[in-house]
Write a structure and sequence with these properties.
It is a single chain. With 211 residues, the chain is an alpha/beta fold. The chain is 17% helix and 25% strand. It has helices at 40-49, 67-70, 73-79, 145-152, 189-195; strands spanning 2-5, 21-24, 32-34, 59-61, 84-88, 99-103, 107-108, 113-115, 126-130, 133-138, 158-164, 179-183. A hairpin with a 7-residue loop joins strand 2 and strand 3 (32-34). The structure holds zinc ion (2 copies). Residues 64, 66, 140, 142 line the site of one zinc ion.
Length: 211
């Protein structure tokens, strides 16, 4: 799993910028791209730098309709016309692609990857099955981190959460998790890093995680 775009950068050759995008690699299927950052050039340049072939992406999931998550979509669809798309209902109608699935309810995307469904009419997050349990991946967490973790718990016991946490400050909800990666729009990033030093990993473009 690799974060390709974030507000912070992990490696000097990568471009940062306000936005979020992440690549999920699981056995047996082509990689899944979750969100596309704020613009095409940043996304495509970071992918090239990380050795990720845009044509090799099988599925693109968009968390929500904000430009810092959808901005690179048009560019990647120009290079990869075959990728299947999963977009929240709040974004449908504006997206053209080979195969577009509009998401409202929880849905299985692959053997290991599930969508929470569109929560509060704005955003979907992913529940990824790993040997350790469920890893939650969120774009901005506008519906609330607690709500997202609760929704992802339908698929198994949540052990970790990665993504933008927005204004989340109900820090107790994170205790008991073994992996916390606050990215992108997380307003209380330093508080979270300080409260959970053992569990936290600092996010940034180019961060790779083996789970
Ligand atoms: Zn965002
Ligand atoms: Zn947002």
């Amino acid at each position: 799993m690799g974060s390709t775009s974030d507000n912070e950068v992990k490696s000097e050759n990568l471009r940062g910028g306000w936005g979020f995008s992440s690549l999920i690699e699981t056995p047996n299927i082509p990689p899944i791209l979750f969100d596309t950052g704020a613009d095409g050039p940043t996304l495509l340049q970071n992918m090239e730098e990380l050795g990720i072939d845009p044509k090799g992406i099988g599925t693109i999931v968009i968390s929500h309709a904000h430009g810092d998550h959808t901005g690179g979509l048009r560019s990647i669809l120009e290079v990869n016309k075959e990728a299947e798309l999963y977009v929240p209902a709040s974004l449908s109608g504006t997206i053209r692609g080979a195969k577009v699935t509009t998401v409202t309810e929880p849905i299985k995307i692959s053997e290991e990857v599930f969508s929470t469904g569109e929560l509060k009419g704005i955003e979907q997050s992913l529940a990824i099955k790993t040997d350790k349990g469920i890893l939650v991946m969120a774009g901005c967490s506008h519906p609330g981190v607690r709500e997202i973790i609760d929704a992802a718990s339908k698929f198994g016991k949540v052990y970790g959460v990665i993504g933008g946490f927005h204004g989340f400050r109900d820090f107790n909800r994170l205790s008991g998790l073994s992996l916390i990666v606050p990215c992108h729009c997380t307003q209380y990033k330093s508080e979270i890093l300080e409260l959970f030093p053992q569990q936290c990993i600092r996010c940034g473009a180019g961060l790779g995680l083996e789970q």
